[in-house]
């Protein structure tokens, strides 16, 4: 096995994130199931397709609810050091993002409807580049608020030109 | 400074071009259609006179209600007939000033000034502040004033900035145009418009040409030659209209580009905001060693056009202007063999899929030509994949770094170390198995991010640190 291209950041998101991802997966599977049911009822499908489609939906459900949330939780990591914000996201593909505090322009905290149910919040750190945005998903709401406040404060202190 | 008006002569320009009256035209036409133009030629004359009067009146009103004021800290433009709009742009947000002179403006000795104030959140037309219809001298004063704050910190007497010409466009470079895709599109669009127009002509005005005899080789060959001639001449003319007498000069802390045959454009870029350059060469341009060079400037709207340093010219010239702005980081390093394997797999995959699908179709329907086409496609994929691999490269020098990719249009970007506002490392499942990763340098200029495709996993952190600074060492420890 080859070495990782970058080290893993130190901290994990909230454990409740697994539950949230599972609920998201369940909702997605439910929508798929409804579509397939509609197809089966209203279209004259050949027999092999009529059997294959529900099987695929079942497989997607197992992956989306049982497997993917756990894989995601193993991949997702974040870290705020003295100089930079560092994250890793993804599940099969992985993305590491590193942004120095000196280049931070805006810090956003968002709480979606599902997140509020689980008491979670996401932090987004924006820079002058559209591709230089760091998203730290699904932290405990208080942790997210504290991190955002700390980052915004430090960015203001050290900001050079930020572009 | 008290608000001032633009030159009154702009009223004439706007009357002729119907600038403000344009929105009334459908109404007038509607009335005309309702009444029916049956009263003979006098009705038409009256209509034309009426429209012109409306145009003159609205142009006068617009001129009278538009003022601009450039104070010590901001520039304010007030306009609007009924609803007033006041736009204030702080001087430290001004990213560039462009002075352009369309033909009609030139006739009256006027220019149009566009102030580029990229505010980040607002996009499109709101990014610009336009002052239309200034005399040349006043426009030069305004531009100097808006960009003056750069030289403000030095308390000494502001010396007249030295003008240094970097290069002039050589007319022979226009001959490269037929090999550039975007210029080739010019004659095609013109021919398309002409055909549409011919289609709308009443039948009795259309000449009866009869049907061409397509079996006659001379006719076909003649048509082909005509098409080629139209394409070549059209693209040369198209690029001449845009790039005529292109001249790049350095004046104090900025670069000034002047270009254009019909509309003269005058674009000013702050050297301080330049973060890097791209040199791009299309397939046809590589053949004759031509290239174009574009500056990457932070917060510049419409950057692809305004940032142009060399719209079209010899590759050596593109590189010499790039080296003036960004230090040369040295020769590119090749990517690992896994990158070549991945390019080959990608470019041959469609052909292989076609062969497999074709095997089934040959067995069931006897379509032997489907797998045959697949074999040809897969065979063509080999040079394509090798070419794409050969165009990959990356290098980090002491003060700058460079990345290259692309095959149809090969683009090499050279960036200063300070340009990087963040790093992104992407690794798909398959990249992970092959020990490579894609590194994206996030930059607050140009495309926003530039990627090094498939570099060795172990090289990622050292490259990022060498290309940006010690902070990127966080990727490794």
From TrEMBL, chain A:
Alphabetic keyword roster: Membrane, Transmembrane, Transmembrane helix
Domain of life assignment: Bacteria
Pfam families attached to this UniProt entry: bPH_2 (PF03703)
Transmembrane segments: 21-42, 48-67
Keyword check for Transmembrane helix: yes
Recorded coiled-coil stretches: none
Domain YdbS-like PH as annotated: residue spans: 73-149
Keyword Nucleotide-binding: no
Name this protein carries in UniProt: YdbS-like PH domain-containing protein
From TrEMBL, chain B:
InterPro entries attached to this UniProt entry: UCP026631, YdbS-like_PH
Keywords: Membrane, Transmembrane, Transmembrane helix
Keyword Membrane: yes
Annotated ranges, domain YdbS-like PH: 63-146, 399-452
Positions of transmembrane segments: 42-64, 173-198, 218-242, 344-361
Pfam families xref list: bPH_2 (PF03703)
Name this polypeptide is given: Putative membrane protein
Species name: Klenkia brasiliensis
């Amino acid at each position: 096995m080859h070495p990782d291209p970058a080290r893993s950041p130190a901290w994990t998101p909230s454990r409740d994130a697994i539950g949230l991802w599972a609920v998201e997966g369940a909702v997605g599977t439910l929508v798929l199931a409804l579509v397939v049911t509609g197809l089966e009822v209203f279209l004259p499908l050949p027999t092999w397709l009529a059997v294959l489609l529900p099987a695929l939906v079942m497989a997607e459900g197992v992956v989306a609810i049982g497997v993917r949330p756990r894989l995601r939780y193993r991949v997702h990591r974040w870290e705020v050091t003295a100089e930079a914000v560092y994250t890793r996201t993804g599940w099969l593909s992985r993305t590491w993002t590193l942004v120095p505090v000196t280049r931070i322009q805006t810090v956003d905290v968002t709480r979606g409807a599902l997140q509020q149910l689980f008491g979670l919040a996401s932090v987004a750190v924006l820079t002058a580049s559209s591709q230089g945005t760091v998203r730290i998903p699904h932290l405990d709401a208080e942790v997210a608020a504290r991190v955002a406040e700390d980052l915004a404060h430090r960015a203001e202190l050290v900001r050079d030109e930020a572009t | 400074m008290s608000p001032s008006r633009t030159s009154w002569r702009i009223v004439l320009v706007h009357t002729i071009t119907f600038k403000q009256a344009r929105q009334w035209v459908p109404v007038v036409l509607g009335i005309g259609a309702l009444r029916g133009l049956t009263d003979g030629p006098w009705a038409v004359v009256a209509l034309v006179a009426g429209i012109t009067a409306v145009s003159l009146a609205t142009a006068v009103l617009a001129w009278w209600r538009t003022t601009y004021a450039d104070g010590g800290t901001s520039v304010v433009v007030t306009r609007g007939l009924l609803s007033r709009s006041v736009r204030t742009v702080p001087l430290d947000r001004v990213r560039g000033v462009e002075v352009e002179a369309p033909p009609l403006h030139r006739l009256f000795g006027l220019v149009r000034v566009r102030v580029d104030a990229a505010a980040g959140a607002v996009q499109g037309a709101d990014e610009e502040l336009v002052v239309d219809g200034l005399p040349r001298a006043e426009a030069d004063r305004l531009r100097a004033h808006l960009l003056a704050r750069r030289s403000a910190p030095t308390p000494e007497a502001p010396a007249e900035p030295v003008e240094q010409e970097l290069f002039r466009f050589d007319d022979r470079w226009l001959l490269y145009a037929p090999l550039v895709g975007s210029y080739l599109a010019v004659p095609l669009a013109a021919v398309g418009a002409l055909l549409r127009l011919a289609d709308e002509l009443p039948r009795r005005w259309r000449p009866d040409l009869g049907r061409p005899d397509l079996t006659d080789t001379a006719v076909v060959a003649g048509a082909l030659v005509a098409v080629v001639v139209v394409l070549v001449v059209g693209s040369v003319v198209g690029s001449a209209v845009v790039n005529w007498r292109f001249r790049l000069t350095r004046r104090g802390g900025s670069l000034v580009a002047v270009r254009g045959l019909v509309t003269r454009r005058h674009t000013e870029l702050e050297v301080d905001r330049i973060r890097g350059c791209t040199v791009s060469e299309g397939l046809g341009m590589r053949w004759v060693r031509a290239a174009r060079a574009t500056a990457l400037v932070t917060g510049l709207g419409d950057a692809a056009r305004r940032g142009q340093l060399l719209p079209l010219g010899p590759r050596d010239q593109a590189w010499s202007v790039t080296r003036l702005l960004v230090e040369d980081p040295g020769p590119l390093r090749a990517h690992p063999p896994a990158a070549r394997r991945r390019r080959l797999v990608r470019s041959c995959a469609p052909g292989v899929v076609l062969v497999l699908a074709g095997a089934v179709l040959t067995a069931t329907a006897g379509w032997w030509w489907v797998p045959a086409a697949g074999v040809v496609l897969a065979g063509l994929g080999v040079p394509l994949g090798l070419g794409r691999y050969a165009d990959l490269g990356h290098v980090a020098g002491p003060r700058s770094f460079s990345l290259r990719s692309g095959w149809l249009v090969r683009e090499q970007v050279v960036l200063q170390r300070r340009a990087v506002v963040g790093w992104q490392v992407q690794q798909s499942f398959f990249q992970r198995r092959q020990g490579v990763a894609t590194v994206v340098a996030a930059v607050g200029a140009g495309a926003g991010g530039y990627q090094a495709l498939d570099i060795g996993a172990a090289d990622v952190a050292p490259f990022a640190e060498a290309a940006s600074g010690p902070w990127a060492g966080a990727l490794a420890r």
